Amino acid sequence: MREHAELMGQLKESFRNDHDVQGVHQVTTAIAKMSEAFAKRQDKASTAVAALTQRLDNNSSTLHIPDEDEMVEQQIPGLRDELSLYAHISKIKWDTSDPDRIAGIFSDPARGKIEKFSLPNELSRVDQIHYIWKVID
Fold first, then answer.
1. Are residues 72 and 24 in the same domain?
2. Structural domain for 58, as ranges
3. For 5-19, 46-60, 77-91, 92-106, which range has the lowest pLDDT when averaged over its residues?
4. Which domain of life is it from (predicted)?
5. Are 83 and 130 contained in the same domain?
6. CATH number reported for the structural domain that contains residue 122 in this entry
7. What is the DSSP string of 54-80?
8. 48 lies in the same domain as 76
9. The pLDDT value given to residue 26
10. Residue 60 pLDDT > 80
11. Which is nearest to 4 in space by CA: 33, 44, 40, 39?
12. Same domain (yes/no): 15, 58
């Protein structure tokens, strides 16, 4: 940038003093120098971009991003424990054989109560929950 400013200053000075062939030659020389400087900076920038791209490629090959199956496998033990806890607390054994129905068996040995239930999915979530709570109570 400093070179550019100096060259521009020289150009302004040469045009102030005279408008002859020598001034045009100086302008042409200055433009050529600026073009060379710009080309050098552009080459340096291209080299830097290529180096950064290479580093990014190298880092991305060592970076492990788990796929969906791996994430599910990591979550299964915790979900299994959580589901087991809910089943123990609610005393419901869910029947997942029919995806169009919410079904299961409620059993409370302490109260001597066993009740099978099956609800269509068309019921609202609120109605489904109210029905299940009535079974549990």
1. no
2. 2-62
3. 5-19
4. Eukaryota
5. yes
6. 3.30.160
7. HHHHHHHHH-----HHHHHHHHHHHHH
8. no
9. 72
10. no
11. 33
12. yes
The rounded distance, in Å, linking the Cα atoms of 58 and 61 is 5
β 113-120/92-95 pair status: unpaired
**By C-alpha distance, which of 106, 100, 137, 136 is closest to 119?**
100
* Together in a domain, 52 and 97: no
Q: According to the model, what pLDDT value does residue 18 have? A: 56
pTM: 0.40
Q: Which residue has the tokens 């129905």?
A: 101
Q: Identify residue 47 by its one-letter amino acid code.
A: T
What's the first-to-final CA gap in the chain, in angstroms? 82
For 24, the token pair is 């045009």
Q: Which residues contact 99 (CB under 8 A, 6 or more apart)?
A: none
Whether residues 129 and 72 fall in one domain: yes
Range of lowest pLDDT (19-23, 49-53, 77-81, 127-131) = 19-23
In the block, residue with structure tokens 């120098």: 33
| 35 & 89 share domain | no
For 13, the enclosing helix (H) or strand (E) is helix 2-17
- In this predicted model, what pLDDT tens digit does every residue of 86-120 receive, in sequence order? 878 888 888 889 888 888 888 888 888 888 989 88
